[in-house]
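Dear U.,

For the methods section draft, I wanted the exact inputs and outputs in one place so we can describe them consistently. I've listed the two proteins in the order they'll appear in the manuscript figures. Please don't edit the token lines directly; just add comments below if something needs changing.

First protein:
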Amino acid sequence: MASALYGILIGISFLVFTRVVPQPLGSIILWGFFSAQLPWGAAICWRRTGLAFVTAAMALGGAMSAGLLVLATTGRVFPSLLPESWVLLGAGLVMVPLFLLIESQVNRAKWKQWARYMESKNVWDIVTGRHIPQIRNGGA
């Protein structure tokens, strides 16, 4: 449930920061947040879980966000990106879910442990990284 609510929060944030907040400030704030949160989450994920594809998905999302942050600081904001900039966004939108799907198949036991762990978590736990369990060495 927390993951779904976090997804909704991302969607609302995306609309607010790309449509309501003046540009390019809104995009700089939005992509700056994800440029910080996702690599930090990737480091925590690797340390606590050892799940390579989830870690890679977070790192890739962070890299994509950093690229979009750089574009926003130069005045090129979503959705008014240059055609070649869409490759950056498109690659992230394809590869991140693909990496998560691969992880769910390659490491099913840990994936299920994580899903059980998430049952008691909320959106704030996701924002603060407390949603990532310690399952690297069998703990949770």
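Second protein (the one for the lower panel):
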Amino acid sequence: MELQLDEYLDLPLQVKLLSGEDVDADALPSYRIYADGAETPIETGSAAKRDDANTVGYYVVRTQLTAAKGYAVETIYHVRVTATAGGGVSGSKTIGMFLVVAADMLREGDLDQIAADTGLLGRGALTVTTPVLASDHLAVFQGADYPDEEGRAIEWVDVDGVLPDLSLATIALRIHARQTGSVLATWPGTWVAGPPNKLRFEPAAAQTGALGLGFKRYGFSIVATQPDGHLVPAVMGDLSVHPVWPH
């Protein structure tokens, strides 16, 4: 879930007994919100009852995500709640996570809405095959390498022949800071002639190890530069970096 700075987090919570029965907590459940990797919470508080007259054990964690409280863009947060019910039985659970983005950034789903509002339609499909995900949301493990000889290369397959011949082009995957768009790292790629044609990347352990951990922490784009200097944008999306467990 992505929320802009100064928006409100509105996260529902249902309290249940171990038997699965809905039950009101003995007192309002407490919540603690942690920045990813932090040892202490950035905010604590109590959940509020929601629709109390018609529900049992239904609460909501609601708070405004302001810079004054310490919330920052390009940061992932986790929400952990603790509730006591059934005469003193207490339990804690992480009920959600969210990414804070700048107020002027397009969020997940915004481009789909723009396309729906304007009637825009794409003219072809690109699919991506990676060891982790198959979409324009790319995920890698921090410190892992992706050699093609092990069947682990990251490849985009030009299913519908959208791209021109890039056999002589210089191909690069650029990793961007989400807020500023500045290029933080570049991975070289290769053109694999088909059909279907492919864009292939084989990042080394040192390259993925230089990235910080986080869900959709970065943006990325794939751009090919033809010998005459002509730029061919190919793919853009989000990049998540996950730890190699145990961590």
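Candidate sentences for the figure legend, describing the second protein: The chain is about 5% helix and 45% strand. Residues 113-135 have pLDDT under 50 and may be disordered.

Thanks,
Y.
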